[in-house]
Amino acid sequence: MPTLRIDQREISVPQGTKVIEAAEKLGIMIPRFCYHPALGSLGACRMCAVKFMEGPVKGVEMSCMVEAADGMVVSTTDPEAMEFRRYVIEWLMLNHPHDCPICDAGGQCLLQDETVSGGHGLRRYQGLKRTFEDQYLGEFVQHEMNRCIHCWRCRRFYQEFAGYFDYGAMQIGNRMYFGRFAPGPLESPFAGNIIDLCPTGVLTDKPSRYKGRRWDLQRGPSLCLHCSLGCNLVGSARYREMIRVEARFHGAVNGYFICDRGRYGFAYANHPDRPRQARVGEEAAPLDQALKTAAQRLGQIRERYGPGAVAAWGSTRSSLETLGMLQWLCQDQGWRGPQFFPQASLARRVKAAVARLDTGMAVSLRDLENADFIVVAGADPVQEAPMLALALRQAARRGATVAVIDPRPVFLPLEYEHLPVSPGDIDLCLNLLSQAARSEEAATGKLEPDAARFYGLLTSTNLEDPLLQERLLALGRKLQDCLRPVIVCNTDMVRETTPARAADQARLLQADKGQAGLFYLLPGPNAYGAALLAGREEVDLLAAMEQGGVKALVVVENDPLGSCPDQERLLRALDNLELLVGLDYLPSATAARSQIFLPTTTVFEKEFSHFINQEGRLQQAVPLHQGGTPIIQVGQGSHPPRTFLDAIPGGEPRPGAGILADLAAALSGEPAPPTAGDLWDYLSGEHEGFSQLASLTASALGEGVHLLPAEAQEPAWSPEPGEKPPEPPAGQLELLLVDQTFGTEELGSYAAPLQKVEEEPHLLLHTDLAADLGLAPGEQVALLLPGGEVTVRLQTAQNMAPGVAIMPRHRRLHWQKTGDGPVWLPPENIKKLSEPL
Amino acid sequence: MSTLPPELQTELAQQVAAADHPREQVINIMYVLQKHYGYMSDEAVEEAAALLDMTPLEVEELATFYDFIYREAVGKFVIHVCDGVVCWMFHEGSVFDYLCEKLGVCAGGVSADGMFTVLPSACLGFCDHAPAMLINGVFYGHLNPEKIDAILEKLRREYCDLVICR
């Protein structure tokens, strides 16, 4: 631990720390452009010069290039260093245009700040400035190359950190140009981060262009709800409109970055059709009146048919407050439910996963970056949870082996080994990998008896494809020498046994190596919370509705008509209802169908909300503004109406939890349902996973709390099930419904910027299979599903499992005809409709 | 699809296949393609990228970095005039400006007869013969206007292949 003095203050830092980092620990921010904690040092901008007074280095040097050493005495304020920096900033400003007033970075520009702090107030340069032509870089990033000061941050992030190679640095010297080979959309789903990184206005946020200066915005810490990882955001609102989202640093979750889905998905909050008014039947009504009517009608149904005739259906995108209140309401009123997942099988997979996480097993995204062997089982990170792919890349950059066992043609921006096996073979692959990683004797000799017994029971038939088998065994041998392996597993498309199998294998690795991690992906930003609340009980509302036992359904921030794979069956079941009450902030099909509709707020409005990410981390989203219809919509682009109101137009929506609490009060006639504080008490009694909640302080909630138990609820080494999940009959294809980076995720599919970039939906078949069927890529095909026909364009891939057909749950594709449970298709169910375009 | 002649395609493919890491061949491939196209055209960048399993941007980053890869059409003779300090010291006026004036071009332009392109070059390393220039791989030193005129005249009359560098 070298100890040095910076500006007369002493500090000890770990070996290898740069002087600029050491100074930051003392709270001294040395000016910088090219240095960034996530990207490291480069020494390109010369801005971080300090003077080394004593020690191994002498004179003015770059603080980002010098490692802290014992005996160093550093001055950041020495006249010589200050003069050096003053010249550097003047030099960097030579070519910078005087366009701050029309630049979107103005007001949040590192170059502005450091020009002022560097003491460069008057321009002396009279010559011509070098100019460039800008490029179209897609819908998210606005390019303005004249402003560039050549710090290299964008290129270093884009290529080195994120692993995409269509954006970079061209030309040399003064002419150096950051851009693409030819104008066109940036290919990386992490491209938005170069906006946050750019120290000036070369790369600015396109959707929010000209919408406000930083000091105009209502800014605050928020959370991303577009997958289960729980990345931290800074949200910005202005004039009741959500304007922009930036990444917020979180050491364990997202680091400094977020993906473009998280950055631009927020626009659902501004959707022009967003329901902002309560409704009874076709008539708009004040919220409290609609609430009273709902309570009245629900009460009538309870009286007529008993409390079990009312059911509640929530979703994993609701805050913990709303989910908890819904649970409380169901218990208090004796209602059926709540159900939190669209399908019972998905609920079982998620619960199986959540029950196997504990402090010893769960790893964060940051831990994942330090793993040396990562097995990705049944997950397609870029499509499902993009930030996971970025973490995998960091692990690979540090030398980790990444093995993907998944039927899809998975692409990752890193070096990885992909084994395209069908979902039914994923468990077997994990077994084989495990066996190749240690010999029988080693297993029986070294492992605990429990672990050894589990190891002994692993089935190990060979894979059909000998080539895959060989690659898998080679990977297993590599795993032998690894010290910090992690298994990543999704709960979406895999067999019901797979999440548990992944946990068992991770536990086996832990028993073997002393260290191993488990990382799940879950469906939705609060799936972890929903799974804990759901408990062991199984709820199948669809069946109950079909049987006629349910007469009223309360749907809370959920769109079963969009998410239920058997829409026809759901529609029939909904017809059996006497009353459908909907609460939501999305203009969804279910909201439109509700007889009584109560509008709720988004995560950005009115009240604090909490979500639990896939590794059990409870995090807080702070309200940014008080809600209401954006002024730009009220005024239809012009000046808003000159009328005086005593309320915010469109400001009626309230947080789901509050509406449910009032509903409970109206139903029971008692005015005191649990308030926010009481809700935590209630939840902590509801499940041991929530037991910490009762004693949490406000500051702990703000920082985020890991709710993981010390020991997982489910004992390890669950025996392999005697009865395997059914596999498709020979010659039939298994239809897999999957996610895409853009276009399938619910909230993001209502966001206009993401709609512009989403890929066309397509059906994906193995190249050989398509050829056998006489189909060519690009052709329109009709896919005959249990619920009817779907027309979709065909794509083919070589690197996917041969026995599957893959279709995204795309918002523009009527995929809700697949029916509940696995879908097996005879190949003749795919018919050619037209020639390729 | 590639529009290169099949023999050239085979030659390049072999060159790439022989390398331990294909991208170590990028400069050599660019020289071959530049010779074929006369300069490193957009098409050539894309050809090189496809051959080396790189993105066109990655090839462009290198193509625009090196002096002797020409991303725009050049004359039959490319004159690299030394822009080093020693050469500045050894001539009155500027060899570069003289050449531009004489040939009626600005930096990177092609003379009307299609014969010459003038480019500045960071030090050629021919300081003992300053001021110096390099034309299609041949050094010329101790330059003065008369000597330059004579060299240009001679080149106009002689056949010369575009030699990249040595």
Largest interface: A-B, 11 and 10 residues
Number of E-type strands of chain A: 34
From the 3D coordinates, which CATH architecture of one domain in chain A would you assign?
A: 3-Layer(aba) Sandwich
Shape of chain B: elongated
Write the element-wise H/E pattern of chain B from the N-terminal end onward.
Answer: HHHHEHHEEEH
Termini of chain B, distance in Å?
32 Å
How would you describe what is shown here?
The complex is a heterodimer of chains A (837) and B (166). With 837 residues, chain A is an alpha/beta fold. Among the domains of chain A are: 3-92, Ubiquitin-like (UB roll), CATH 3.10.20.740; 349-522, Dimethylsulfoxide Reductase, domain 2 (3-Layer(aba) Sandwich); 733-832, Beta Barrel (Barwin-like endoglucanases), CATH 2.40.40.20. In chain A, the strands form nine sheets. A seven-stranded mixed sheet of chain A has the order 14-13-24-23-22-15-16. Chain A has a five-stranded mixed sheet with strand order 2-1-5-3-4, with helices on both faces. The longest helix of chain A has 19 residues, at 287-305. In chain A, 53% of the residues are buried. By secondary structure, chain B is of the alpha+beta class. Chain B folds into two domains: 6-63, Arc Repressor Mutant, subunit A, CATH 1.10.10; 77-157, Glutaredoxin. In chain B, 43% of the residues lie in helices and 11% in strands. Chain B contains seven helices and four strands, in the order ααααβααβββα. Chain B has helices at 6-18, 26-37, 42-52, 56-63, 85-89, 95-103, 145-157; strands at residues 77-82, 116-121, 133-135, 138-140. In chain B, strands 2-1-3-4 form a four-stranded mixed sheet, covered by helices on one side. In chain B, β3 and β4 (138-140) form a beta hairpin. Chain B is elongated. In chain B, 31% of the residues are buried. The model of chain B has no long low-confidence stretch (mean pLDDT 89). Classes of the chains: A alpha/beta (837), B alpha+beta (166). The interface between A and B is small, with 11 and 10 residues.
